[in-house]
């Protein structure tokens, strides 16, 4: 059984993330979504909220496409998380050249730590390349419409969370 790990903060999960998840599912038997506990990023949603959103959106994907998706919070090194969940592949989404430069460095470090775990890059769909969680949050904070970037349920979660912070 081929298991892959798709890590991120998912703050919140976007249609870009969902695109990568759906395409990754065609490549592996089991996909583990690693929800990173990254205190340095100062997430809008706490870990429990992000895990819940990712689970809900992945449940919908599994109902549509089949396959197995697990959601796994983690705070350790990415390569250690991959080992913990039995992943032989790390999935990374790319939007732009700037993403590649950072990811290229990460792959080098991860290969030095464990050369048996491969990294696979999936380019975001052209319609989804501009979507970034950071920008989605900013648009929502400023009263813009984020419905082109997230599912209706995530949009509601985002608006409710922003209302709580006001």
Write the topology of this structure.
Layout: E1 3-8, H1 15-25, E2 30-36, H2 47-65, E3 68-74, H3 78-84, E4 89-94, H4 97-113, E5 118-123, H5 133-141, H6 152-165
Parallel strand pairs: 1-2, 1-4, 2-3, 4-5
What is the mean predicted local confidence, pLDDT? 93
Please give the alpha-carbon distance between the first and last residues. Answer: 47 Å
CATH superfamily: HUPs
Number of helices: 6
Largest sheet, if any? 5 strands, parallel
Any guess at the CATH architecture?
A: 3-Layer(aba) Sandwich
The CATH class is Alpha Beta
Question: Could you name the ranges where pLDDT drops below 50 across 5 or more consecutive residues?
Answer: none
The H-and-E topology, N to C, reads as EHEHEHEHEHH
Question: From the helix content, strand content and strand pairing, which structural class follows?
Answer: alpha/beta
CATH fold type: Rossmann fold
Gyration radius, rounded:
15 Å
Give the strand order of the largest sheet, numbering strands 1, 2, ... along the chain.
3-2-1-4-5
Q: Please indicate the count of domains.
A: 1
**Helical percentage:** 40-55%
Shape: globular
Total beta strand runs: 5
Tell me what portion of residues adopts beta-strand conformation.
Answer: 15-25%
Walk me through this protein's architecture.
The structure is a single chain. The chain has helices at 15-25, 47-65, 78-84, 97-113, 133-141, 152-165; strands spanning 3-8, 30-36, 68-74, 89-94, 118-123. It has 166 residues and is an alpha/beta fold. It has one domain (3-165): Rossmann fold. A 5-stranded parallel beta sheet has the order 3-2-1-4-5, sandwiched between helices. α2 (47-65) links the parallel β2 and β3. The protein is globular, with a radius of gyration of 15 Å.
């Amino acid at each position: 059984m081929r298991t892959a790990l798709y890590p991120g903060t998912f703050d919140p999960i976007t249609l870009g993330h969902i695109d990568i998840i759906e395409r990754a599912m065609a490549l592996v038997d089991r996909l583990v979504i690693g929800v990173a506990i990254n205190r340095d990023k100062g997430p809008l949603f706490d870990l429990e909220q992000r895990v819940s959103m990712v689970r809900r959106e992945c449940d919908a994907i599994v109902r549509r496409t089949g396959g197995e998706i697990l959601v796994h919070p983690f705070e350790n090194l990415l390569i250690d998380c991959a080992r913990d969940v039995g992943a032989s592949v790390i999935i990374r989404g790319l939007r732009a050249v700037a993403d590649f430069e950072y990811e290229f460095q990460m792959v080098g470090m991860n290969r030095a730590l464990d050369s048996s775990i491969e990294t696979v890059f999936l380019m975001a769909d052209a319609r989804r390349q501009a979507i970034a969680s950071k920008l989605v949050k900013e648009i929502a904070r400023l009263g813009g419409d984020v419905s082109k970037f997230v599912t209706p349920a995530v949009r509601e979660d985002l608006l409710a969370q922003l209302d709580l912070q006001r």
